Amino acid sequence: MNIDYGKWQAKFHYSFINKKIFVEEFIGKTLNNYKILCYNTNPNYIYVSIKEGNNKYRNFYDTHWNFLNFSCKTKPHPTYKYTKPKLFELMKIYARKLLRTLNLLEKTYMN
Fold first, then answer.
1. What pLDDT, on the 0 to 100 scale, is given for residue 29?
2. Integer Cα distance of 42 and 33 in angstroms
3. Residue pair 5/14 in contact by the 8 Å Cβ criterion
4. Contact, 29 vs 44, CB < 8 A?
5. Which among 111, 99, 110, 108 is positioned nearest to 42, based on CA atoms?
6. What is the dihedral of CA 61, 75, 51, 24, to 10 degrees?
7. Which of 28, 61, 71, 94 is most enclosed, with most CB atoms within 10 A?
8. What pTM, to 2 d.p., does this model score?
9. Are 32 and 111 in contact (CB under 8 A)?
10. What does the domain layout of the chain look like in residue ranges?
11. How would you write the pLDDT of the chain (111 residues) with one tens digit per residue?
């Protein structure tokens, strides 16, 4: 609670948010972390964060859920390809609705 993550991550708007701790009940399985990266008026890329032990991976997909073999900060998982989430189309709809007022959006979904 004493670290200013806004300065540390160069996302200064976080420095002005009151710090709180949120605790959620563990539901018994590991959740997948999906992020939709949007530019201008549409979602462009989706990535899934993967952590295995001390290794971190990030798999990128296009908006039709085709695997894209490139990396950003972390390397793609060498063997694992995620299946498309059941609510994938709905995730993109909500991302587009949020884009009506923003030009750049990173939307996080847990599944």
1. 63
2. 20
3. yes
4. no
5. 99
6. -50
7. 61
8. 0.63
9. yes
10. 25-110
11. 778 877 877 777 878 888 777 777 766 666 678 888 887 778 889 988 877 777 778 889 999 999 988 777 777 776 777 888 888 999 888 888 877 766 544 555 555
Residue 26 pairs in a beta bridge with none
| Other beta carbons less than 10 A from residue 91's beta carbon | 18
CA distance 52 to 33: 13
- Rounded to whole angstroms, the Cα distance separating 47 from 62 reads 9
Backbone angles phi, psi at 30, to 5 degrees: -80, 135
Are the C-beta atoms of residues 19 and 76 closer than 8 Å to each other? Answer: no
DSSP state of 95: H
Tokens of 64: 């039709």
- In three state form, how does the secondary structure of 33-70 look? EEEEEEECCEEEEEEEEEEECCEEEEEEECCCCCEECC
The answer to whether 58 and 71 have CB atoms below 8 angstroms apart is yes
